[in-house]
Each structure stands twice: as C-alpha cells, then as structure tokens.
Amino acid sequence: MTAIVLIVTVLLLVLLLNGMPVAFTMLVAGGVGVYLVAGWDTMAGVMSTAPYEQVASYTLSTLPMFILMAEFLTAGGFTADIFRAFYKWSGHMRGGLAYAVIFGGAMLAAISGSSSAAAGTLAGAAHPEMRRYGYDDSFATGVMAMSGTLSIMIPPSIAFIIFGIITETSVGALLLAGILPGLLTALGYVLAIRLSLWHNPALAPTAPGRFPLRERVETLSTVWPVMLLMVMLLAAIYSGAATVTEIGAVGAAAALVIALAMRRMTLRSFVKAVTHGTRNSAMILAIIAGASVFGIFVTLSGVPQMLVQAVESAGVDRWVVFSMILVLLLILGFFLDQLAVMVLTLPIIFPLLLRLGFEPIWFGVILVKTVEIGLVTPPMGLNCFVVSSVTGVPAHKVFRGIWWLVLVDMLVLLALILFPQISLTIPRWAGAM
Amino acid sequence: MLALIHRVLDLLERALMTVAGCMLVVMLCSLTIDAAGRYLFHHPLPGNFEFTGYFSMVMLAFLALPRNYTTGGHIQLDVLKPWLRRVPLRLSERLNALLAAAAFGIVTWYAGIEALHKIEMRETTIGIVQMPVYISFICFPLGCLVLTLRLAVEIFFPEEHRQVEDIEL
Amino acid sequence: QEPITLKISYQFPEHHFVTLGCINPFIEGVEKRVPGKVTFQRFPAEQLAKAFNQLDSVRNRIADISIHNAGYTPQLTPLTTFLELPGMYSFDDTMKAQRAFEKLAKDDLAKTEYAKIGVVPVWVFVTSPYQFQMVTKEPTTSIDQLRGKKLRVPGAGAEMALSAIDAVGVRVPASDLYLALQRGTVDGSIISTQALPAYKLDEVLGSMSTNASWGGSPFIAPMRKDRWDALPDDVRQAISEAGHEAGEKCVETYMRLEIEEHERLRKLGKTVFALPEPALKQLDTALQPVVDNWLAQMDQRSLDGKAVIAKFKSNLAAED
Ligand code: NA
Ligand code: NA
C-alpha cells in the first residue's frame, strides 16, 4: 500500500509540474490510484459516477452565484469605483494610494469571493495613479497583490464555501468566522504600510493635495448601492434569515438589478459577465469533480486511518501534529494552486484534526489564512502574476514588494492560532455554532 | 483535414459553452424566484432543489469543460513552462494530452454506458415535480467526450493554451 | 485460508447511534457466526460516497455493501419509497413495520425492484416515523395551526405532504437547521426525534409531536448480485441472520432513543405533545392526496404501487 501511495503522489507531482491542468491531474492520478488499490472495475465505477455526484449538488450552487454577483458588479464598473472613492478620501496622505488599495480591497472583499479577480481590479484602477505620484513599483504592486487576498477571508468567500462543502461544516458559520480575521489582516497591512513609509519615505514620495469636498462626496453616489448590497449580504448571513445558497442567488440578482438601474449594464457587458462567471465556475467545478476521484483513492488507500492510528499510538502532542500540518500547508501553498491544496489535503488532515479535538470552524479560518499567504508567495503566487500582467511590472518585482506584508500575515496567523476567539466570537454571537 | 477537425471541435465546444452559460442564467433565475417566492409569498418554486442540483449545476460544470480547456481557463502550474518548452518533440505537452485523453476517455466510455442504462430505465425522481435525471446525466459523458476528442487530436498536434482574456461564448 | 474482506460504506459517523446500534451489531453478528472468514473494512461518514449515493457505490463496485436510505434514490428504488408516505405506520407499530418491510423487501421488492438494478437487499430496517417540531411552545392540536408555516423537510415526500396541508417545505441541511430555526427562516422542522441532540435542536425548539405519522425512512443494505452469489453459503447465511438481528436491534435502538428523548425534552420544559385523535384523522384525510399522487406516479412508470402497499399492510396485519 505504501508503494501505491508513493507512486500516485509522484505521478501527481510530476503531472502538476509538467503543466497539466490541476483538475485533470487529480482525475488521472486518482484514477491510477483507485486502479492500483481496487482494480479496473472499481476504477471504472468511480470515474463514471463520482465527478457527476460531486457536482450535482444544490448546496454547491452557492459557488457560481457568488462568482456571478462579483462579475455583475465588475461589469458595471462598481469595483473600480470603490477604489476611486477610497482614493478621493485618503489620497492626500503620504501613501494614501496604498491605504486606498487596502481599504478598497477590504470592501471589494465583501462583495467578491475570489482573490485574484479583486487583485486584478485594484491593480487596474490604482496603478496609473501610483505611477504618476512616483510610488516605488515593488511597494505599490506588492500592496495590490496582498489586498486582493482579503477577498477570500472576508465573506463571501469561495474558499470557505468549498471548505464547508468538503468537510460538511456550516458554511454560514464559516463565512461569519472570517469577518474579524479579515479586518485584523487589513489593519495589519495598514500598520505595516505606515511603518515602512516611516522607515523609507521614498516609497511614496509625494501626495496630491486634498480633493475638493464635492468631488469626494460625489464618489459616494456610485458606491452607496454597492455598500447597501454589502451590508444586506452580511446582515443576511449574520441573521441566517435565508440559506447561504439563497443569499448568493439573491445577491447576484440584486447586483444585476443595481447595475441595470444605474444604467451601467449593456447586453454586451451582461454577456461578458455571464461568460466570465461560467468560465470561472466551471474551472472550480472541474477541480472539485477531479478531486472527487482523488478523494476516493485517498479513502480506499486507508492513509487517513493509518495516520490517525500512527499519531495516536505514537502519543504525539496534538499541537505538534497541528504545527506539522500548518508547515505542510504553507509549503504546499508555495507551489500549488490554493484550491488544489484544499481539495488534496482536506480528506487526509481534516479527520485527523477532528479526532485530535480541534474546532472545525477555527481550523477553517486557519486553513484559509494559509491559503491567503500561498496566494502571493513565489513561485506560484497567483495574485502576483495577475497584478504583474495588469500593471506590466515584472513578477519578480511584485514578489519583492510582498515579503514584509507576508510577515504581517504570519503574525496574524499566529494571533489566530493563539486566540481562537478572534474567529469564533461572531459566529457564536450569531448563534451559528 | 486538420483544419476541418479544429473547426468542428471549435463549433462543438462553443455550442456546449453557450448552453452552459445559459444554464448559469437559468440557475440564477430559478434560485432567485424560489427564494423570493418562499419568503415573500410562501410559495417556493416547485422542483427548484432537484433542478438546480441535477440540471443547472451538471450542465454548467461539464458542458463548459471542453471550451474552458481550449481557452486556457483551467488552473495549471506554469513555473516550469520555459524549460518544458525546450523538451524535444514537444513530449511534455504530448504526455499531458495522452494521459488526460486516456482518463477522460475512460470517463466518457463508462459514464456513457451508465447514461444508456439510465435512459433505458427512464430514471426520474418522485416528488412535486418529477425530474428526468437521465437527461441531465447525459451531459456528463457528452462534455467529457468533446474534451477527449480535443485531447486526442493534441496527442498528435500539440497546442499550447494561453489564457484568453476576453472570450466570447 | 485468507478471510474475505468486505468494504462496508455508510453515511453515519463512527459514534452515531445508527453505527453503534445497527451497523456494529451487524458486523459483530457476522464475525461471530463465521469466525475468521470475513473481515469488514469500514468507510463511515460518507468517506466513499455521499448519503444519496450509497446505493450507487455498491452498484459501481466502490463498496461491497452499504447502508442506504432508499428514500434518497426514488429514481432507482421508486416502490420502496412507499414507506416515506404518510399514514403507513405509527410509532408504536415500528417493530411490526420492520418485520413487514423485511418480508416485503426479501420476498417481493427483491424481484420487482432491486434485481433490476443488480443488487440484493441483504438486510433492511425502517426508522420510526418522522415527527414534526415547532419553535413555538404551544402544542399543535389542529392541522390548521400548520397552515402557511415553513417547515424544514428531509426530502420530497415530506415536501409533498406539507404542500397538501398548505404549509411550505424548505430544504435545509441538518447542519444549518439550528440557525434556520433560531432565526425564523423556518417555523419548525420535520426530522427524526433521535437527531435532535446531535444538532442541539432542543435549544431552539419549543414543542414536538410524538405520534404523527409522516412516514419514515426505508433503509436497505444492498450488495451487488454477482458479489453476493460469489460468497460461500455459510457466509451468505451468516450475513442474512446477522442482518435480520441487526435490523430488529436497530428498531429497538430507534424506539428506545425516541422515548428517552421525550423524557429529556420534558425535563427541559419543552412541550412534548401527542396530536389529538381528531387532528390525526384530519391529517390522514388531508394527506390522502399525497398517497394518491404517489400511486399515480407509480402508474406512470408501469409499477404496481397499490400491490406493494397492500402487501405491506397485510404483512403488518399478520404481525398482530
Ligand atoms: Na470575500
Ligand atoms: Na504560492
């Protein structure tokens, strides 16, 4: 059995490194694994049903709905407006653009569930201004890449929805658990910017004068409907007044209505938003479908049980196990796509952590935090590539600009581990756990 | 000949993708009408639960699969790309195409058999609305079939799929 | 000789009462009867397949045997879903219903239904009928009180039943039910009484029924026919006997837990009520269309639903 697990793991890594799409890799490696463990008939049975069964799920429809909502708002030009609004209000400060990117990122996060989309939008809107006022390229693009990561911590979040569906944990509780950690992260970024500007003022040499009050107030006219939508979403999730699936659908419909009412949606941009939504949804669903086959291989191989038994018989302290898992997740995050990290590791590590008595919701937040970090770290830092391609700044320069913010992320991660209340207070208030 | 194959595959992929996009809109409508009906008028949309799970989701996922592949929409690791391009005879790309074609070929074959069985049995749910599950199941091998054909062509004529930013349906 | 390994798959977690009270006794029963000849490899908690796909996991050779709620797969096991219909049996008659269903499944449905999908039901069990629970502490004395209310439903059967009495069924996963009840997303729920403690639902519920007959869940333990036929005679016999015993133990567990749960809830100051006779009558009348609708749907499939219900009722009467 050990040999089979080894073969499949090597195959998986080789195919990933060879540039095969992640979803296909899991289907191929999982299929080979099931064949080696249980024979051809079982493999045929698994491959011909598991992907369908995994995807044919009402609950999973939450995912395309939140994706579509963000697409409608982007197509309506609202996401870029959010950044501009914050910029008008904070632009006069030294480093004001950087703060605007962070605040804009936090607010975008509340209407968007996917991180790289947010990073791309922010970069597109902020980069010309940052260049105009002589911001350091690494500093500026690093901030853009990082602020995008807020999207997967602050609800709605695709990462939490997938975590909830794979582990059968309440998605509502998970989404609520992400609010404070997300805000804490944003606060950490702000402090870090403040400190580094104090240390090296040349990063953000000049600031434009204060924008006239009228101009600042005007920005609110485009932003308030989005803010209202955001507040309504959060309130709906908090109150549990509807199921998360329904909230996603109503949110997407509301986004469409807002865009139409404000005459910001043409048939053309509607089709574009739907196309992007279809594409992104199908991409994630393909990974989930491929992962279903790989997950059955993991189960049939008996690795999770062996791991639990090994840990229990060795009498290792549970925090040692936890730390090892954390390091593993961080290392995988360097190299692998974040979704892949989740779907590959959760079938193995989640039962183990549950057995060791760790709180599932809290662990969900920890996992998503490591995923956040992985989104910007080289060599596979999706957000950095997105920002690089939008701004034209070479990727290695973007990577140079993130390390001090990653340090902040590490500190926040430590805080989240040491103080579970940060994650669990809001879901407890809401009675979601 | 090759150009013709490409044209046919392209056409098929686009057609399936268009259906998938329509299903996303249909899903949005049915979920919203259901939620609004339930909370405002005490009248949920009958069959929405089954329809969303069995139809909208399945068609969205599997009919968009092939087109998403050819337009570079699937996440993959690009770190080694510059080196892999130098591998002689484009073996790196051919290997990916071969293994993926084999896997999706197996899926297509066995899911196709399963689909025929379901059609023969006319598998249909019971409830306020009766959903013909067998119709939705067909989309699974169908999407995989088109993808398999595309991959099979690429074993012989490898192609690189760059992320297309603005794709049309 | 090498023992035969059977992969057994089920939706319930390791410490769930169905695992402890039904599945463990089955496994132990087989191992006791043919020592050293069979070992079970367990895949609990939906590890191999989601609850809805436990039957398919056996048909597709992913597992050798599974514990499957036939109510989840009306497209595959339409006739078996009659047990989900309202008015088939009451709480007090659950053991009789178990025996009647076991006979029906092995004598009739094995041929008319399970053979078509290539499986053998090696054992079966029924749950006690679903009850309904309301957030309000006021007991339900008339069906009119349910009119316009939103109740969480476990499946299509209960959804139809509710729409027949002008109430609304909402699909809420059990893990989100606590929040839905607390926040008024739903006014109540239809769920088996035994499931209340696992989700701490007693904290948000005010009252619950004891004698409603919304229908129960028909569970079957399917094996592929070829896999079953390939087993040695003594192993097959051991599985049948152990399955028969486990099925009855399971019903005992369900009934004992339900009565204990009533006690516990009363102590917590909840209203544990029995629907008065007129309300039961009212419910029966109101829900007759649901049964008729089911029969009509069977007719469309050229299946004899009437005969199945009649056979079940006569088996039930024979238990008296
Ligand atoms: Na978000
Ligand atoms: Na990374």
Automatic annotation (TrEMBL), chain A:
Lipid bilayer topology: Multi-pass membrane protein
Chief location bin: membrane
Keywords, alphabetical: Cell inner membrane, Cell membrane, Membrane, Transmembrane, Transmembrane helix, Transport
InterPro entries membership: DctM, TRAP_DctM
Location in the cell: Cell inner membrane
Ribosomal protein keyword on record: no
Domain spans labelled TRAP C4-dicarboxylate transport system permease DctM subunit: 10-422
Residue intervals passing through the bilayer: 65-87, 99-123, 143-166, 173-193, 228-261, 282-301, 321-354, 401-419
A cellular component annotation (GO) from this entry: plasma membrane
Superkingdom of the organism of origin: Bacteria
GO molecular function: transmembrane transporter activity
PANTHER family: C4-DICARBOXYLATE TRAP TRANSPORTER LARGE PERMEASE PROTEIN DCTM, SIALIC ACID TRAP TRANSPORTER PERMEASE PROTEIN SIAT-RELATED
Its biological purpose: Part of the tripartite ATP-independent periplasmic (TRAP) transport system.
Subunit record text: The complex comprises the extracytoplasmic solute receptor protein and the two transmembrane proteins.
Homology family: Belongs to the TRAP transporter large permease family.
Protein's recorded name: TRAP transporter large permease protein
Taxonomic placement: Bacteria, Pseudomonadati, Pseudomonadota, Alphaproteobacteria, Hyphomicrobiales
Automatic annotation (TrEMBL), chain B:
Membrane-topology descriptor: Multi-pass membrane protein
Subcellular location, record wording: Cell inner membrane
Domain of life: Bacteria
Domain Tripartite ATP-independent periplasmic transporters DctQ component intervals: 27-156
Record key words, sorted: Cell inner membrane, Cell membrane, Membrane, Transmembrane, Transmembrane helix, Transport
Entry's Gene Ontology cellular component terms: plasma membrane
KW Transmembrane (keyword) present: yes
One Pfam family cited in the UniProt record for this chain: DctQ
InterPro entries tied to this protein: DctQ, TRAP_DctQ
Transmembrane segments: 12-33, 45-65, 95-113, 133-153
Molecular function (Gene Ontology), one example: transmembrane transporter activity
Coiled-coil annotated spans: none
Family classification: Belongs to the TRAP transporter small permease family.
Protein name per UniProt: TRAP transporter small permease protein
Organism: Ancylobacter mangrovi
